[in-house]
Amino acid sequence: MIRVGIPRALLYYQYYPAWKTFFEELGAEVVVSPPTSQAAVTSGSSRVVADTCLPVKVFLGHILSLVDKVDYIFVPAVRSVKSQVYNCAKFLGLPDMTSAVIPEAPPILDVDIDVNRGKRELYQSIYRLGRHFTWSPLKVRRAGLAAWQSHQNYRELMSSHGLTPPQAIERITGTSPVEPGVSLAEPDSVLGTIALVGHPYLLYDEHITHRLLNRLKQAHYRIVTPEMLAAAELDSGIARIAGKAYWTYEEEVVGAAGHYLQTSVDGIIGIMAFGCGPDSVMMDMVRREAIRKADTSFMSLTLEEHTAEAGLITRLEAFLDMILRKKRSGAAVCV
Amino acid sequence: MGNLYIPFKALFQRLNMDFVMPPCNNRHTLSLGVKHSPEGLCIPFKLTLGNLIEAAELGADTLLMPAGNGICRLGYYAKVQERILHDIGYNTNIVQVGVSERKLFGILEIIKRLSNDAPWIKIIPAFRFGLAKLNALDRVEKLVQRVRAVEDIKGTANKLYSEAVKAIDLADDHKSLKRVERDYIGQLNQVSRNDAQPLVVGISGEFYVLLEPFSSLDVETELGKLGVEIRRNTFISEWTKFSWFLNPLGMNEKERIHRAALPYLKRDVGGDGWETVGEKVLHAHEYDGIVHLAPFTCMPEIVAQNIMPSTRESIPMLTILCDEQLGKAGFLTRLEAFVDLLYRKRKLTGKNN
User: Fold this and answer.
1) CB-count exposure of residue B270 (10 Å: 0-12, 13-18, 19+)
2) How many whole angstroms separate alpha carbon A218 and alpha carbon B83?
3) Which of A100, B102, B158, B205 is the most buried (most CB within 10 A)?
């Protein structure tokens, strides 16, 4: 049986159930890399130039952990999933970058996803991907449709049940949790609600965020995340802050922040990676909007491989203290 | 950006428009830009923001800024900058010039709107005159890049160049423009030269830092001082020629570069990343070395930078990341070391140009 490796990084959190279904329908076995470890971060960072962003370094670390274990590695180049809205350059260059910096990697399955080139091109590129496994276009079509269905189920599961991507993936695949998953269920006594905005590959990677979600929960805060919002809410959030969406996956940052700034959360924490192109612009737009509204506290955390746990905890504690004090006095603050 | 202000100035003057030109990039522009920019943005954003603020200080109410849809962040800059300008208290309106999708007619329409509906019969000649100045400037610059390397008295070419830029700026019709250009090209050709075989170094990378000497600490002049001849394929006049006139006709100058990059980078990654990889592959046997300029945090160039070391075509390469922290002393040391390496390599391989 052909084994296809999928790195547990970047778009894994958005599309894993769909990818898994697709490859399994085509008769392949799917192997996922283990959760991010320090070793993965270090090995990934050692392959690329220093100013590459942390998520890409982590991604490459995951690939390195899959080398020798699989026959193919799946690295899609997602250019655009919405008309006239494009993705960051690093996502596009991902397959080429991977084969350039990890020459020992098994053959890379890449697929161009660009909805601007029309349905035909899109279907053809999916078919080209399926050709590695079968000659029958019908089989590829069936696998593609099944993948689409499982993607819909996955999104539905997250928005209706308020699950995080790792939890939803566990429920779908029926695997036991590989990491001590964070339940976003209500803590015993709630001091307030914090909205986390940022890309899922940062928010749910416990190693990168130094278990931020757990820490918030232990501090008795309820957490809301972008995945818990419906598409329409995200779109109106984008419209409020940025007008028209410019980058793919921007709804996770701008859309969610725009929505939560309107609702009654106590604070918003924006999480971005150092060197992230789109976020460096968008997080600033969010910050400006937060300053203007001035009734929801906002903090942005920039993460990189040198981010120290102690510093992160200090900032988090200060932010939560500020929220508590603000609640007591009723004043508005923004950092 | 570079000498781009000269053609625009000519265009606006001819249309009798009321305009202000912010000063050329300087330390003050940069610190203004840095002060008001999000930290993670690239130097083109910071410098253009500085320019816009300086223009607004001089009383401009409408600012021109390129924009568009694309992968590079540039397309979004105008929007963010407008927001920043509002936040610091300038009520200016930014006209977004869609550089990638609007092509020639889009640009002409914007000019028409800005010039209070001047008749086309005035706009077209003014536009052509602007283009003529642009072409003249680039032709002189190309020659300067060669003369710098071999001139006997260092600095002669640069002095002539800055005089030429001034003279081209002042020329007020096609005839005097031609005369000025011919005059300076003649003078540059007569600069006394030594007979050394200069090293040939290609300059590739991101558009803005390539064309704005201030952002790269004038890397071309510094290399010229070290006796290096510069080859650069990016010029605004070339870009205009192709993207406004020839691309719509189906001619694409970049196809050759893209094809060269294909084995290593299969798709466009926005900005100039694809071209950077392609130029390395294409010119690996032609140049002695390549200096790769990229703004710090530039996404497409990071992709290019990661891919380039793995190409089969190998050539010494120096990447210089440009941002407000780039210090002259360290920069010069790196250039000197790079040039020494190229000389030694030439000596060892016995290759003479």
Assistant:
1) buried
2) 38
3) B205
What does the DSSP assignment read for A41-101? HHHHHTTS-TTS-HHHHHHHHHHHHHTTT-SEEE--EEEESBTTBB--HHHHTHHHHHHHH
Q: What CATH class has A182-329?
A: alpha beta
CB B69 to CB A277 under 8 A? no
* Contacts with B, A 168-187, CB within 8 Å: none
Q: If you search the block for the tokens 């008309």, which residue do you land on?
A: A83
Could you write out the DSSP letters of every residue in B238-271? HHHIIIIIIGGGT--TTHHHHHHHTTT--S--ST
Alpha-carbon gap, residue A9 to A20, rounded angstroms: 14
Q: Could you read off the pLDDT tens digit of each residue along chain A, which spans 335 residues?
A: 899 999 999 999 999 999 999 999 999 999 999 999 999 999 999 999 988 999 999 999 999 999 999 999 999 999 888 888 888 888 888 999 999 999 999 999 999 998 888 889 999 999 999 999 998 999 999 999 999 999 999 988 888 888 888 889 988 887 655 444 455 556 667 889 999 999 999 999 999 999 999 999 899 999 999 988 888 888 899 888 888 777 888 778 899 999 999 987 999 999 999 888 888 888 998 999 998 887 889 999 999 888 889 999 999 999 999 999 988 886 555 55
Neighboring chain A residues of B270 at a CB cutoff of 8 Å: 86, 89, 92
Helix extents (H) in B37-115: 43-57, 74-87, 103-114
Q: Which residues of A touch B72 (CB under 8 A)?
A: 89
The domain locations on chain B are 18-114, 197-353
Q: How far is CA A7 from the centre of its chain?
A: 13
Number of residues assigned to chain B: 353
Which candidate, A235, A233, A223, places its Cα nearest to that of A167? Answer: A223
CB B287 within 8 A of CB A77: no
Q: Which residues of B touch A110 (CB under 8 A)?
A: 266
Of A48, A79, A277, the CB nearest to B299: A277
Instruction: Establish if B326 touches chain A: CB-CB under 8 angstroms.
Output: no
Six token digits for residue A294: 């001035």
Check B269 against A92: CB less than 8 A apart: yes
Q: Whole-model pTM above 0.95?
A: no
Residue of chain A whose alpha carbon sits nearest to that of B79 = A242
Angle at A215 between CA A210 and CA A217, to 5 degrees: 140
CA-nearest of A76, A122, A81 to A96 is A76
ipTM, 2 dp: 0.87
What's the gap in Å between the CA of B273 and the closest CA on chain A?
9
CATH 2.170.16.10 fits B197-353, yes or no: no
**Ramachandran angles phi, psi of A332, nearest 5°:** -105, 135
> Domain A3-161 adopts which CATH fold?
Rossmann fold (3.40.50)
